[in-house]
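Researcher: Structure for this, please.
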Amino acid sequence: MLCLFLTPLLTGFEFLGFASNSWHQKMTVEVRVNGEVYSAASVVAMSVFRHPDIPLVHGNLDLDMAGEAVVVELPDNRQLFALLTYNAYLAVKAFSDVMSRKDRQSSDQWAIVTAQKGKGRELAPKDYPLLVTFTDITDPTTVKQVDPDNLAATFGPGVSLKRITLEITDEPVTEGKIESLLGWLGPHPEPTLGHSKDIFNPIFAATVHHGDFIRR
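Model: Predicted structure, token format:
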């Protein structure tokens, strides 16, 4: 009986222009260290809700995500984090090769993304998420940006980024890894990792947020 009630209701919402798509995507980061590959992955839940083209919400999209950043454990107790500094459009960019220009300019792009389950793509360098590490992982203010083209500048000779891939998957969302490493993470995504007196030239820690590491 409930299904009989919900079906016309959902159909009505779609008729009015409301629509939603959701999927899980797995990001994998691979790092070479003196010829040996170290890798880690994280599964994030993505969702897109489209409002109808009516006044005040014309073409409006709600983009949401839940999950954790990728953290690659490297030798000498060092870590490389690939942060959640992206949104649902990352998957569109990754799978643009199976979309026409018309698809990418319409809501069809989201259905095409969800249809790619089990398939993956290597990300273009321009689409990489922000990469960071910590001088002291117990102190959030020691966060440092990592140049994807020059990991050796941060981690020493012989260290380089091999690739970052994105896969549409039905695997469960990753939980617990980031919180076990970063005990100082708060429950809210908005706070930054540091504070800067100069708002026009902030320190790097003041530009990175707790929500860049985990979204609940």
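Researcher: Any notable elements?
Model: Residues 138 and 184 are 7 Å apart (CA to CA). The first strand starts at residue 19 and ends at 33.
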